[in-house]
Structures are given as structure tokens and as C-alpha cells.
Amino acid sequence: MNPAPASELATAVRTALTPFATDPTAGTLCDLSRAVSRMTAYANSGHYADRSREIPRPWTESYIACNHAHEHIQNVNHTFATSSAPTPLDVRTVKYAVLAAVALFDEAVRSETPNPGVEHGFSVFAIARAAAHLLGSGWRAEPGLHNTSSLIQHSVGEDYLLAVGDVGDMSPMLYVENEDNRHILGDTADQDLPALAQRVANTIRNPSLA
Predict the structure, then answer these.
(1) pTM, rounded to two decimals
(2) Is residue 191 pLDDT above 50, yes or no?
(3) Residues 163-184, buried b or exposed e (16+ Cβ, 10 A)?
(4) Rounded to whole angstroms, what are the CA distances from 185 to 114, 159, 195?
């Protein structure tokens, strides 16, 4: 996916948060609420490249955090509706809940941003998620830090690392690793997401296919 629209939504929330934290009025709260609502809708939508029907965990956590921030925003909104002023604690609670939601939203965006070290245009997590789907029931994928890796796990405890990294004298390449065994996938530059996912799934089923 193109992360620019998502980044703009997060920026809009930060921009709206500052006036509210400085001058908590019904107007500044309304602007903040609208900005958070747009970010929430994005986190809960299905308009992302290679998104499966099940929303990946980073986006689910982001959506939950956004809803949590909304709860505090609504509490303060109720305070304004009764012609009362929010307490400093109310304002701080909204502030930190919104900042937490923005942080998780940014992390979700990073989890699906293509890694520049990969020759193809798909994120490592997108490949891992598609491979887990091919492997069938009990398999799932979890994103790694900075999207240079992802963990493909089975419910019984079996797990494989899918990562991009230096492999000897070669340029950074995609590989599958299980315990002390690393299986380099070789040239993947011309392969699309389904083909890459199939190679990863085949490697997990039978390492000799790597």
C-alpha cells in the first residue's frame, strides 16, 4: 500500500491534538474527534494492498486504541455538554490516549510498508501472511521490526523466520530460517506476491525445495 494517505491522517491527528491540549474547548475537541474518527476508519477498513479478510494484528491493535481514545473524547464531550470544564486530568487522559493510538497507527503503517532492501515491491509481512494462508489451518504470520522480517507460526509451536538480510557475499536476499537452518530463496526480483508466498510455503513444507 501507499503509506502517504495514512501518514497524512496521523499528522492531522497530531495537528488537532495540540490546540486541544493547549486550549481545551468544545471546538478544539470537535476537531480532534473528527481527525481521530478518520484515522479509526482507515485502521478498520479493508482498502490495503494484499489485505486478507482478517485484519492483521497491528491494524486491529490500532483500531482498538483509536476506539479507546474516542471513549475519553466522548467523556470530555459530555463534560462540555453539561456546561462544565474538563479537569487537567481529563485533558491529559485524552492527550495520552490519542498519542498511544497514533503510535500504534504508525506502527501498523510501517508493518505494511515495502522494505527498500527487497527487490520486489511487497512487504515481508505481506508475503508471510499469504504464505501462512497457503499453509492452511493453524498457521499465522506476525510482523517483525521495521518490516525486514516476519514470523510464520503454527498453533502447536512450530515457527519459521522469513527475513531479508545479507547472505554471505550476495546482496540482501529473502530467506526462511528454522532453528539453525537457513534456506535462501534465491532470485525473487521478477516474482509476484502469490509466487513468492508459494515458494515460502513450499520451503516450510519441504526445505529441499528452497
Answers:
(1) 0.54
(2) yes
(3) bbeebeeeebbbbbbeeeeebe
(4) 18, 17, 12
